[in-house]
Amino acid sequence: MDNKLHLDTDTCRWLKARFGLIYLKDGLAPFCDDVAKQQQREILNHIKQTKKLLTVTCSECDLGTLKPDHEKTDNKCPFGQKYCNCCKTGCKIACRNKVCGAIYDKIITSHVTKAPNWKNTDVKKWTNDSWSIAKCFIYTGGYEQKSSAADTDCAGLLHVIINNTYFHDRIGCKITGSDVFTKVRTYRNEIVHTSTMKLEKVRLDTYIDGMIAVLHDGKELKGKQYVQDTVKKLEELKNEDFIITSQRRECQIVLADMKTLKKNIDKGLEDINNSIEGLATKDACEKLERQISTLESIVSKLTEEVKRLGTDNSADKEQSNYENLKKDLQKRLIKLYKKDVLRMSAMPLEQESDLNDFEDVYVRPRMTIAKKDKKEDKKEVDVLSMSDIFTNDDESIKSVYVLGEAGSGKSSFL
Ligand SMILES: [Zn+2]
Ligand SMILES: [Zn+2]
Known about the structure:
49% of the residues lie in helices and 6% in strands. It is built from 14 helices and eight strands. Strands 1-2 form a two-stranded antiparallel ribbon. A two-stranded antiparallel sheet has the order 3-4. It has a two-stranded antiparallel ribbon with strand order 5-6. β1 and β2 form a beta hairpin. Bound molecules: zinc ion (2 copies).
């Protein structure tokens, strides 16, 4: 019984590719946000001038009824759109503010195939939210609730760049279908849709190099500081000496030769992660997350210390210092637990209110152990001492599952 997932090198590479996509998104989002804002500004200014309007705002129109500014000719949409509002019988309400029909047209003419996807957007937001316009260029659904570039995944951002001709003027790369942006969109699908979750080194390098090439686009992206920072992170992913050590989104990437120290850290994090799983409320989880980062900063200081010791000539001194550091880490962990984690509400159903010292209010729940004897018959025995839980025939147990009704005290016990 081993409750850890052991990742082989190929799986780690796949995880790195997944992180690559997240980094790529981080590198593209501010740029996409800027360009989308400018596009919206230009569209609105253009409408203001050509229609001689004082204001260009509207929050009244509906996609289902909006009459576009363009009209059908010979019973067909002049842009060749099959399902355009110009041809639909129900779409007869012209925007009272004379804005939305014109925006509708502009979105069509800015689209590479003149076929925007209206499913992700809300027409009512077009004049005050630039991302609602940008989302019309994302070919697939599922982005209705995404309200900004930062909120949109890497696939969505690539769609916006590839399908929106306004963006084409802002990148050096020519979108031809075999360009690097389109390639990386394919890579993204390959990474996300793999069934094996494994990756060879050559493939990982191709993927990451593609992502870097996108960010190295010479026109505007390359010169931005946040893009350069992202490229650095992507390059690190290619380095085989970097390993992934934690399941959290901001994965800790540490040098492999720090393995000894890592064991202690992992133990601490594992304990806290187990507590997080036991706690139901979001606030409590966030609090623990903060504690994890405190721990991580302690650990990174210790890592520095160990590194420094690594260059010291005296092996003995190194060993004893290392032992001291370990003890120190343990002490700090215990202190941290006592101060922040071992506090609970006296009322099981009001977990956030009036936190008391754990020892003052904790009542040990009645617990039984479900055992299988040698004949594989199941039987339940009462828990008499803690060692009943953690050992079996004097051997320590690696995984312990605690089951019970809501409010029965699982989290507190943990
Ligand atoms: Zn039309
Ligand atoms: Zn309108």
